[in-house]
TrEMBL record:
Species annotation: Koleobacter methoxysyntrophicus
Keyword set, alphabetical order: ATP-binding, Cell inner membrane, Cell membrane, Membrane, Nucleotide-binding, Translocase, Transport
Official protein name in the record: Oligopeptide transport ATP-binding protein OppD
Pfam families: ABC_tran (PF00005), oligo_HPY (PF08352)
Keyword Translocase: yes
Length: 327
């Protein structure tokens, strides 16, 4: 069952009188109990999508077009009071940058009690038991409860944010780089716990990251973003095993594995285009080894490569046949 549908979302930022294109024509849907992984380099528009869903975009942003449908309503048309009722229990966002999200004058215990008391009828004792359950699973020391945010590391704060999110039992969790400050062991624990929780509560998960290995580990479907656009999307196995877009192909070729250990890794020359100076035609054409005249002039649209596998490239079928040693 579909729990969230994003349709042709486009949004810009205005900075020093310049229009910065952050997201262009992004569409996807999230099913109950499933995970959509949003992958992209820094600045490719991932966080802006999460903020748009939550109605938390900054004042210098503007939605150019699109819809975000949740329980039959377009979230983009809701008043602040209405969207406030959805935030937390309906859709919960774990944002990047843990420390700023905590009130420096409140202890961790006060933060967590606030979350649990606001959302349930639990007694003080039940709240304490619940908090300690999550702490144990996520390997957080009990003493942390009485600490102030300034006394804790970024990694611990990140794990506390994740506990807060899961305690809320949201229908949809948007996790924006939730494990970026954690070491491998903690990352593994947190991902495992999120997945366990997801299965138990049938939670829809949107997982935003620039780490391909995490996407491979957690996502059912993946959106590969480049310069604000989805250049490839679909079933994780199809995209990873048979990438259709030249950008995805290069990314996966640059992914370190034991097989290519110590070999020169492939890289993509050039940089992500600036949002106020997007290339004409295909957004990836200045960096594409397969670039043709048409790519410089015409913007491609997502076309179907297979069931639940779409690629935004004029020459997707030809590239599959062209010599692989170009990549
Ligand atoms: N408040 C803002 N004002 C102006 N431009 C912004 C603002 N927030 C984001 N941008 C620009 O919008 C584009 C998309 O940014 P966004 O943060 O959504 O990307 P991202 O893929 O999430 O990056 P990261 O992984 O670094 O968080 C970038 O060009 C970014 O510089």
């Amino acid at each position: 069952m579909c729990v969230l549908k994003v349709e042709k979302l486009s949004l810009n930022y205005n900075l020093n009188k310049k229009e910065i294109v952050a997201v262009r024509d992004v569409s996807f849907s999230l099913e109950k109990g499933r995970t959509v992984g949003i992958f992209g380099e820094t600045g490719s528009g991932k966080s802006s999508i999460g903020l748009a869903i939550m109605g938390l975009l900054p004042l210098n942003s503007s939605i150019i077009s699109g819809k975000i449908i949740y329980k039959g309503k377009n979230l983009l048309n809701l008043k602040e009071k209405e969207i406030n009722q959805i935030r937390g229990k309906g859709i919960f966002l774990i944002m990047q940058g843990g420390r700023e999200l905590f009130d420096p004058t409140l202890s961790i215990r006060q933060h967590l009690e606030e979350v649990l008391n606001a959302r349930s009828q639990m007694t003080g004792e039940e709240v304490a038991v619940k908090i300690l359950e999550f702490f144990e699973i996520l390997m957080i020391e009990k003493d942390v409860l009485n600490a102030m945010p300034s006394e804790l590391s970024e990694g611990t704060l990140q794990k506390i944010l994740i506990s807060m999110a899961l305690m809320n039992k949201p229908e949809i969790l948007i996790a924006d780089e939730p494990t970026s400050n954690l070491d491998m062991i903690n990352q593994y624990r947190v991902l495992k716990e999120i997945r366990r929780f997801q299965t138990r509560h049938d939670m829809g998960l949107i997982f935003i990251t620039h780490d391909l290995s995490i996407i491979a580990n957690i996502a059912d479907d993946v959106l590969v973003m480049y310069g604000g656009e989805i250049v490839e999307k679909g079933d994780i196995y199809k995209v990873f095993l048979n990438p259709g877009h030249p950008y995805t192909k290069r990314l996966l070729a640059a992914f370190p594995t034991l097989d290519n250990y110590k070999k020169d890794l492939e890289f993509i020359p050039g940089n992500l285009p600036a949002g106020d100076n997007l290339p004409t035609g295909c957004i990836f054409h200045p960096r594409c080894v397969y670039c043709q005249e048409k790519c410089r002039k015409e913007r491609p649209f997502l076309s179907k490569l297979a069931d639940n596998h779409y690629v935004m490239c004029h020459f997707v079928n030809e590239i599959q046949q062209w010599s692989d040693n170009v990549v």
